[in-house]
Structures
1.
Amino acid sequence: MSDPGRGHHDMGGLPAGPVERGEHDYALWEKRVDALLMLLSDKTRDLVRVDELRRGIEQLGSGAYDELSYYERWIASITGVLLGKGVFTSDELGRKMAEVEARAAGDRT
Amino acid sequence: MTARFAPGDRVRVRWAHPPGHIRTPYYVRGKTGVIERICGSFRNPEELAYARDGQPVRPLYRVHFDQGTLWPDDQGRANDGVEVEIFEHWLEPAGAAKEGGT
């Protein structure tokens, strides 16, 4: 388990609990993240490849990897890839996130 | 691209742990298996993961491992196996000097 040659995500063959076999619904935001990747990875855009997505997820670090849910890992990785390619800057993303947050707060009141 | 190995060849997965995005699972590294089929040639995902073009394409093989080779403590049936798709640059002829693992 503590072998430095093994990536944290590379857990094939390690002891694990039982497989959760129940079906579950996806939240709207999870479907949106999925759709976002489909659009970003299509042939015309080719901005985020599945290999880049996986690399970004592996680079989250063991703490975030374990804490984040499946689609949270996706959006964290997609964000990193797009930042790296200059599709948007951290500043632009941060301002947009604050704007959306304010809008959502306004909707709640 | 010409494939170095053919179905039936015994191969050993390299015992290597480079940093970066690796497509060869840890549990098969250093293990010996048999080429089950040649899947075709594809761009290298270990390069595609870093936004490079992944060229030249490389042969990808499906390699069969006996379950007992991977997990000696496994209590499964004697004929149980695992097949893993592995790119050519991770494989050596099984006759090559042993670098580690089993």
2.
Amino acid sequence: MIRAARAILRKDLRLELRTKESVPAMTLFTVVVFVLFHFGLDRNSLDGSLASGVLWVTLLLAAIIGVTRLFAAEREQGGIDALLLAPVDRTALFLAKAAALFLFLVAVEIVALPAFALLLLGPDLLEALPELLAIVLLADLGLAAVGALVSALAVETRARELIVPLLLLPLLVPVLIGAAHATEPLLRGSQRPEDLGRWLGLLSLYDVVFVLLSVAVFDFLLED
Amino acid sequence: MLELDRLERRFGDRVALQGVSVRVEPGRTLAVLGANGAGKTTLLRVLATLLRPHGGQVRVLGAELPREAWKVHGRVGFLGHEPLLYRELTGRENLRYQASLHRLADGRVDEVLAAVAMERRADEPVRDLSRGMVQRLAVARAVLHDPPLLLLDEPRASLDPAAAELLEPLIGRASERTRVLVTHDVEGGLAEADLALGLKRGHQVFAERVDAAQARELYR
Amino acid sequence: MAYARGLKPLAAATAVTMTAALALVFFYAPLDADQGFVQKIFYVHVPMAIVALCGWVAAGVMAIRHLRTGDRSWDVRSYVAIHLSVILGVGVLATGSIWARASWGHWWVWDEPVLVSFLVVFLLYCVYYPLRFSIEDPDRQARYSSVFAIAAGAFVPLNFVAVRLAESFTHPRVLSQTGGDLPGEMRLTFLVSLLAMTLLFVTLWKLELTSKHAEARLKRLRRRLEAREPAAVA
């Protein structure tokens, strides 16, 4: 099954590299939203909880784009049928899609974080980098698992573009809470992280619950 | 190979198939005829385990559907209306992907590409190919894993006579596989089939050898 | 499926308990020193919230049964539970808002973690309807709804933990006050109110299931009739 998941993932990465549909859009979106926040808040630099909030809300909103498009190729070109006909465990599809979404998010963050530091952040980002990376990776894991699940849930519905954000965002509130609270002290400049363990713990709990749940439940979304 | 006994399939309140019963021996060809919307494609998809039956009994390759559907996976070659190929990938990449899903050796991809005469253009994105070429690649995809059962939905639709002839040994009678063939070509379909199943609005009208005149009644 | 069995005694029990609860709230429970009469909304607001949340989690469990057994009646039970909890949810938010206004002067407060996390959960379950009704095939509709119910049901406790953690920097409010140290009269009134709300929920749940079941049987009979005599079904 891992082998099949890898094959599907490779196919998805190749498709993304060729069509460049999700990652550039998501990245551009985050930068645009940062600019919007500059105008909306009328601030040149942010720190602390404001910076943390702006960063994470923007990333979550950008994730919507990725989630909506996650099964696009399958839906439009009938790829799911070919997968269903093969002797492959359905869970492999979930793992592949979640992994793809995870990688897309990381790719976006590689540009978005420096962009954020350049455009809006007051304190220096580099100091906080190692802890920030831990937070980002844990948050991305939860995002990827829930994103893949929601994407599959919404795949056949007619109002897909509406349902994905409405479904995804409430479900991601714990991730937002954990990530934003964890990041806040890091962006206050020269303050050491408080309670980082507590928030990383929350994120990890969320990740475990939703990865297990999605794996268990995914099969039921593909049969007909 | 195939045993259907009063198969029933609904879509909400609409009955798509009802009372379909037929038996197909290994190596035989079943032609499925009927007007548009009669349920031919639905029948094919049930046999492919893409849809589950709502009533009656279905046995494909010895496996009872839907309970043992997993036993059928990887042993059916499905050629539907959609080529099931990713347009942005090349023919070769598409087939390699399929091959990895079915756990086949890479060499098999080259073999099949040669068989459908697409080696030269296998490295171009599918969206750049003509419909006939895409159809040839779709056939390649369908027989890549050498399945004992073929489910074909108008296989010769976009093919010129030369291409159709080329594909005969793969999906025609000469392939010696069990085949279920959905077609609008009444005479052609009957000519290459051992059995014919006629569908009219989801109901079975006949399941035996018939002549062309009887078959055309379906389209009234 | 004899849904209607036990419905009459259940309804009777509900009526009795609700009357008792109302009596206790108005005549027995003490008047709150600083909040006055409005504080009594607490006896409606909190039980409603608890029952709604339990309803949602129970719906998730029913959804698991549906997926495991393939028996669609479990999905219907799950749907009705979610549906009723959403209606209760509107009540929770409304009473919560009134209470907040009366007690603290604002129509909404972020300090109360239960209310806040309830809002998030409520918004999530509101999406159940568009999701469910945008899928036409009944089998698939049931399956996808169940998947949602399970994910959302698991989300309820997770979300509560998260919000609680976030708000734990402000001093805990009425709920945790009431958690342990409710004075005797308040506690009795609260428990009776909770019981009444639970019974009400279960009665309405059974009632709606009975009606849906009857509808479904009628539909099946019509379909069977139609198959035999297409002209007879006018």
3.
Amino acid sequence: MKNLVILGAGTAGTMVANRMVRSLDERAWRVTVVDPEVTHLYQPGLLFLPFGNREEGELVRPRGRTLDPRVVWRTNAVWAVDTAARTVTLDDDSAVAYDLLVIATGSSIRPDLTEGMLGDGWQRSVFDFYTLDGAVKLREALGNFSGGRLLINIVEMPIKCPVAPLEFAFLADAFFKERGVRSGVEITFATPLDGAFTRPIASQRLGHLLEEKGIKVEREFACGQVDGTAGKLTSFDGRSLDFDLLVTVPTHSGAEFATRSGLGNELGFIPTEKHSLAAKGLERVFVIGDATDVPASKAGSVAHFEAETLVENLERAVAGKALLDTFDGHANCFVETGDGKALLIDFNYDTEPLPGTYPIPGVGPFSLLEESRVNHQGKLAFRWIYWNGLLPGKPIPVPAHMSMLGKHQP
Amino acid sequence: MPTKTYAGVTLEVDAEGFLTQSSLWTRDVAAAIAVEAGVPTLGEKHWKVIDFARSDTAAQGQSPGPRRIVVGSGVSMKDLYELFPKGPGKLVARVAGVPKPKACL
């Protein structure tokens, strides 16, 4: 019996496990996933939860419901991987041998890596919305916030869902407007990048949103220290920003075992060939989703498009064929802009977000780089598709490769 | 494609003024770009950072962000912000003649 072992049963790991268990001969191959969590969290829903627009129960399912019953699920954390011996050591000290390994262990926020972030202000005036616990606690804080300085910041890149902090700012603007208290709230968005929008076309088309919504942007602000009690964020070059409520997107890192096993880079992400998804310099090891170091966004849509390439390459590895370099960095992301509208961006390694329609040229129904209510409905509808189509590994009728059809250079 | 002249050499640049032909970069070009970008002199620590940025970009296919520069060059984060003020990822890339680090939007 040969073993395909998949570390992590998030979006990427679950899709790959479900597809491979159907594809492989079950008399010859066992598909095992390793994940210590008994629930599967729908991460895109965390953006809405702090505004009272989601209940926790809608965002989690028991993991058993998301995995094909033929997949063997080890409810363990990964301790280490020995790529020479081709074994994975689990947190109960047992070992799992692999013939093919897929690392899909994602990425976590690391508030501990910024001085002072986990000090007295943590979850009193300093919150994250990238964890279920953080989003729930932030919901309470937002409910009690009647006025003052709301500061939203990104500590450093890469982060999961790079647009989410900006979406949060847009939704916060709408939230306070609805409550009739917007004039008493100052919303500031602080980023280490040189703008809220860094791509020229997106910046030109969407920059007005910030002005219209009265959101101040602090550019090139690299947060080095948080003082939750005093309500102050300080940058590495000595600038400071005051806040009454801080919503922070902390530094992200890959899973701990990656660093422990000598596999990860400076943030624990695993060096990965950007088109084939093979782990660099390693035989029989692949990486997918937020765990890689490829220059694609850390987003669910990217994991989905990567899975097309990875599943094909795993099948080729099983058959002893050469791998194909087919992944193009494609990402496809809804961006909530508040008031029941959203925009959609579609891009890849080589092409920045361009205006147009998606997925059908001229027809859409989604408009690229343009706000619409249809886009917002699309984002909401996606949750159903996620649980019932994407995770089970059913075919989703959009091409894996980014297409220039329906797009135009402005 | 627009061009700029640094240290007597005419080079193609993108819409934000980053060199598009990394192979034509020289240390004299770097010094001229640095002056224009508000860094009047390049000392030993500057060059450690610049040399790392060039070799890492060649190896990885993408320009390093500040943390990676700190880990790879041995220069501390605090020093990096003094050597290349405000946005070191972007400023280092500009002086080192490598592409601007990319974000999605």
